[in-house]
Amino acid sequence: MLTAFATLLCVTALFAYLNERFLHFPTTVGVTLAGALASVVLIGLDALHLIPGVRGWAAGLLQTLNFTNFVLNGILAVLLFAGALSLDARQLLRQRGSILTLAFLSTLISTFLIGFAAYFVFGLVGLDVPLIWALLFGALISPTDPVAVLDLLKRAKVPARIETLIAGESLFNDGVGVVIFLALAGIAGIGGRHDGGVGALEILILFLREAGGGLLFGAALGVLGYRLLRSINQHAVEILVTLALVVGGYVAAAAMEISGPLAMVVAGLVISANRHTVFSEETGELVESFWETIDQVLNILLFAFIGLDVLLTRTTGAQLIASAVMIAVALAARWISVALPFMLVRAREGYGAYTVRLLTWGGLRGGIAISLALSLPATPYRTHIVTVTYAIVLFTIAVQGLTILPLVRRAAEASPDA
Q1: What share of the chain is helix, strand, coil (3-state, %, to 5)?
Q2: What pLDDT score was predicted for residue 266?
Q3: Considering the entire predicted model, what is its pTM?
Q4: How far is it, in rounded angstroms, from Cα 115 to Cα 112?
Q5: Which residues contact 45 (CB under 8 A, 6 or more apart)?
Q6: Contact status, residue 139 vs residue 76, Cβ threshold 8 Å
């Protein structure tokens, strides 16, 4: 495992350097594209017998790290806490109605739109995927990835209210999406917690426990962190305390079967809202600088991993056709699932005409979708879902990620509030 991680670290550093030196793409986009290109080159070298076995060797290294554990049981807690800590929590609280409405309703609407559409598309191209598995695909691909979104927002000159809306929705819909995925997995009778299938009442209880428990536990962690941090003034110890809250809190949330992602978001927001109380000016800069740096480094590693994971995906013609169609479906579903609930909040909170377009095109997918897809048990249709998931993730990062900044500029010119 150490050899595999060292290899990933060195390759990622090379990709990031080349991107920063020559391409100047957003770092997450650049390293993802570099990883995907390197994967294609290795596949070609192996297929042409120029370097026999190189694909299998590289794929073996990646499988040693296990993408699902690397993300869901590894760096996700750190990334979500760091993302929440970097936000203006007081501004987010003022926009809580629109953020929570989008995070819950948009994710639910998108899950079922994509799920039913996927069931039809898979059947149309001759791929046998049961409806419940198509809905699982809808759940894992619907949440926008906060890691990808936050990285781009840092580069874009988005109006403050719109930045808070996009970032807040992305942070919360991540946790909501995982909860919906677990609920559907229970219906399908898969997953360690709910083998054998569950009924509608059990699904409702699961959703409330996972989501509500995660929110309450996150608030408790945030309050505990607040009380501990405000009583000391030594940056190394404060960093250690926040790390312990994140890692220990995430493990505890998993043991209690509540949403760890939602808990990390809320904990980060509670501390962010009280940053001027818990940190002195000097220690606050050091602690926040630490979390910003670790966020950026893990962020780059994650997206290099996404690009390189093309090595693990073996495709058929039918899967490629389904992927092309589902890219368009996912984009349309994102627009519908944002536009409908947005009607409830737009007039009241005064968002501009470009906001829905920004939310739609800025709805990048990333490591969370891939890790959930790879966590599915081995079946004849798992590979169809994994392939289409990779295609949508790579499209959103490469195409939407590279073209969102011009859209942001046009939105800013049209209206100062988008």
Answers
A1: 80, 0, 20
A2: 95
A3: 0.89
A4: 5
A5: 51, 54, 55
A6: no
